[in-house]
Specification:
The chain is globular and about 105 Å long. About 1% of the residues have low confidence. The strands form six sheets. Strands 1-2-5-6-9-10 form a six-stranded mixed β-sheet, with helices on both faces. Strands 13-12-14-15-11-16 form a six-stranded parallel β-sheet, with helices on one face. A six-stranded parallel β-sheet has the order 19-24-23-20-22-21, sandwiched between helices. By secondary structure, it is an alpha/beta fold. Helix content is 39%, strand content 17%. The protein has 25 helices and 25 strands. The protein folds into four domains: 161 residues, Trna Endonuclease, Chain: A, domain 1 (3-Layer(aba) Sandwich), CATH 3.40.1350; 206 residues, P-loop containing nucleotide triphosphate hydrolases (Rossmann fold); 228 residues, 3-Layer(aba) Sandwich (Rossmann fold); 43 residues.
Length: 691
């Protein structure tokens, strides 16, 4: 039996703890779930709050919620409380035909159990089960189901209780033909959204301690954070919440998720005066943590250009400068999304803004291939004047403080395998990056079949099917990844536009189901110009994020296909992802900076991948793909030396920065009127100066 609740709290709740012990000795099936102080509901007024003491969902025994009554007689107050809970839970279940036996009758009875001291109660109260703690086992056994609840039905029941049954935001795709891409996305939308057991514990248990949520991109971290915000707001409407993130385009998504999650707890709307959803930096035209904190405390905020005069890491600099000043604590709960993208100085600023210890951050364990070490929370938040860390998970305060989500709900299994193999350079002439331990591989949802992650070890790594939803494994096989090599950039762009048109016209996809990510930053302008022309010729409007205003906070635009750089695509997902300019990665196959861009781009898909390029680098790319297939989609390699991979990373970063600078200078020379032949002579003169 899985327990969803704060263990420390129930241990202090004597009667509830006794009920828990009785149920633990009785319920043997591992699929049973026991909730503590959940679900709860908030009425129209702040004092109107009610919660279940304990709620049992068991495929063998059925559904029971327990109310504790210390009175000597059955009162109207306890009756009203039980009736309200029953009506709230039952009304959600009755919305689903598969959970009804008749129009207003549940297929699986929701038993109301009052644990009290009185032996019997007045006539007319037969719908309430009343017993003492010692009689719970007998009562449960007497109402045992004739046959177990099917797994799919059990998931639906739990999603009704959690409120995740309304989690899927469905897109309207009309006139969809069978066996098309649109029909597959519609089918996936119809699957019941439901938290797995780890997600339940994070989203539904409130702890007054710092908490980190780790996992791959697409493991549900943002949704879990949004539910934490909604739950906390419903339970403590007078307390202030901050939800912050790195990618500007996440703003609308986060507010929408919080709003939908809040409906699980209340019929009213969230009070957005008490929930601040904003970017980490901010400006006069767009709210942000840094900007708001400066204004609220009477300090003049720095612009990016001003901060760059003092440090290359402008954001870290301004956060440190502000952190050193006197600032007012403002929030009772702080939620940080995309934590891997923020410097430690931002974490320390947020910690200083928090009235409590309730600071929770989502950290992508592998947002990029340089994140090969697990974040050290002690160094991130710093130390006090006595050298004691502000946050230290090693002290064993609460097991919920550091949680790992191993299941990936976004990126299909084969796309993820390809992304890791190509990103780490597993089948390159030399391995470009390494993970430090078997535990780290396993925390990412992989299985170590051989090796111990020590230098020189022969490693075999696989991706178990169970760490990807079954519907994704069924629909998105290795054939959902399409690779094309073209003779020129013009032909590549023309064919991408043609393929997008086919996806919309023949496969029924919406323009917002599709995005194009250009991985070649030097030629991204040419790519998007050509693709835009091709799309318009098909009557399709592009949404080119290169031309979007600075304060744009959306990744999609209704009725348009998004064209994005790698950086702007972070934190977003799409049913069909086209990645162009692949050859730029493999012109120098040892450049891990470019490998990282490829990894990030590939993990944006939640369906199909179309990978294309037009240069000589495509041959090396195709060779690595073939090697992945020949190794039966496993990562087979010799663990490289740490110093060697670090040196490769340093060289790659220096090379990438130099190439970008040189390209910018060439662009300026072209704009001045020089022809490429003249520019080539200048470069040759610098490389081979005459004596």
């Amino acid at each position: 039996m899985q327990f969803i609740g704060n263990v420390e709290d129930i241990e202090k709740d004597i009667l509830a703890n006794l009920i828990y012990d009785k149920l633990s000795s009785l319920i043997l099936d591992e699929k049973a779930v026991l909730y503590y102080q959940y679900p709860f509901y908030r009425g129209d007024i702040k004092s109107d709050f009610i919660e279940a003491k304990l709620l049992l969902v068991s495929p063998i025994y059925g559904l029971f919620f327990f109310e504790v009554d210390k009175n000597e007689t059955f009162t109207e107050a306890i009756q009203d409380r039980v009736d309200t809970l029953y009506n709230e839970i039952a009304s959600r279940m009755l919305k689903h035909s598969s959970l009804r036996s008749r129009r207003n009758q549940l297929k699986y009875e929701l038993h109301s159990v009052i644990v009290g001291n009185y032996v019997h109660y007045s006539d007319g109260k037969e719908e309430y089960m009343v017993c003492k703690v010692d009689d719970i086992s007998t009562l449960i056994n007497e109402n045992k189901l004739d046959s177990p609840i099917p797994q799919e039905t059990l998931i639906l029941i739990e999603s009704c209780i959690d409120g995740t049954s309304t989690l899927n935001q469905k897109k309207e795709r009309s006139n969809v033909r069978p066996l098309t891409k649109a029909s597959i996305l519609n089918e996936i939308q119809s699957h019941i959204a439901n938290f797995d057991i780890v997600q339940k514990k994070i989203a539904e248990i409130d702890i007054d301690l710092p908490q980190r949520i780790r996992g791959l991109a697409g493991s549900g971290k943002t949704i879990v954070l949004a539910y934490k915000a909604a739950r906390f707001h419903a339970q403590y409407p007078d307390k202030k919440i901050l939800y912050t993130f790195y990618t500007k385009s996440l703003a609308a998504t986060v507010k929408n998720l919080i709003n939908r999650a809040f409906k699980n707890y209340s019929s009213s709307e969230p009070d957005w005066n008490m929930i601040k959803v904003c970017h980490g930096w901010g400006s006069s035209s767009s709210e942000g943590v840094y900007y708001n904190t400066c204004i609220n405390n009477g300090y003049q905020p720095m612009t990016f250009a001003e901060a760059r005069r003092y440090s290359d890491n402008a954001f870290a600099y301004i956060c440190k400068e502000l952190y050193m000043k006197d600032i007012t604590k403002e929030y009772d709960l702080i939620l940080i999304d995309e934590g891997q993208d923020f410097p430690s100085e931002f974490y320390r600023l947020c910690y200083k803004l928090c009235n409590t210890k309730r600071i929770c951050w989502a950290y992508d364990d592998f947002q990029n291939i340089f994140d090969v070490e697990i974040q050290n929370e002690q160094n991130t938040f710093g130390f006090d004047s006595f050298g004691k860390p502000y946050i230290d998970f090693s002290t064993g305060g609460n097991s919920l403080q550091d949680q790992v989500l191993m299941k990936c709900y976004r990126t299909p299994r084969y796309s993820l395998i390809y992304a890791f193999a190509l990103g780490l350079g597993i089948y390159n002439e030399k391995i470009l990056q390494r993970l430090e331990s078997n535990k780290q591989w396993e925390s990412l949802g992989f299985k170590v079949e051989k090796g111990n992650s020590q230098t020189g070890d022969e490693m075999i790594i696989s991706r178990p099917e169970e760490n990807t939803p079954s519907y994704s494994n069924k629909e998105f096989t290795k054939d959902s990844i399409n690779v094309k090599k073209y003779a020129s950039i013009e032909k590549e762009c023309c064919n991408i536009a043609d393929e997008i048109s086919r996806c919309i016209q023949e496969q029924g996809l919406l323009p917002t189901d599709i995005c194009v990510i250009c991985i070649d930053s030097n030629r991204i302008g040419d790519y998007f110009s050509n693709i835009s022309i091709g799309l318009r010729q098909h009557g399709i409007n592009p949404f080119n994020l290169l031309n979007a205003p600075y304060n744009n906070t959306t990744f999609f635009s209704e009725g348009r296909v998004t064209l994005s750089s790698v950086n702007k695509a972070k934190g977003n997902e799409c049913g069909m992802v086209f990645i162009c300019g692949i050859d730029s990665v493999f012109k120098n196959p040892n450049n891990v900076v470019m490998r990282d861009k490829l990894f990030t781009s590939m993990t944006r898909t939640k369906g199909w991948l179309h990978l294309s390029g037009c240069g000589d680098g495509m041959e090396a790319f195709l060779r690595e793909l073939k090697e992945i297939e020949e190794k039966n989609y496993k990562l087979v390699f010799i663990q490289p030396d740490r110093a060697e991979t670090k040196n490769i990373e340093n060289v790659s970063r220096a090379t990438d920065a130099a190439e970008h600078h040189i390209f910018e200078q060439i662009r300026k020379l072209r704009e001045s009127g020089l022809k490429d032949e003249e520019i080539q002579k200048i470069i040759n003169g610098l490389l081979f100066p005459t004596k």
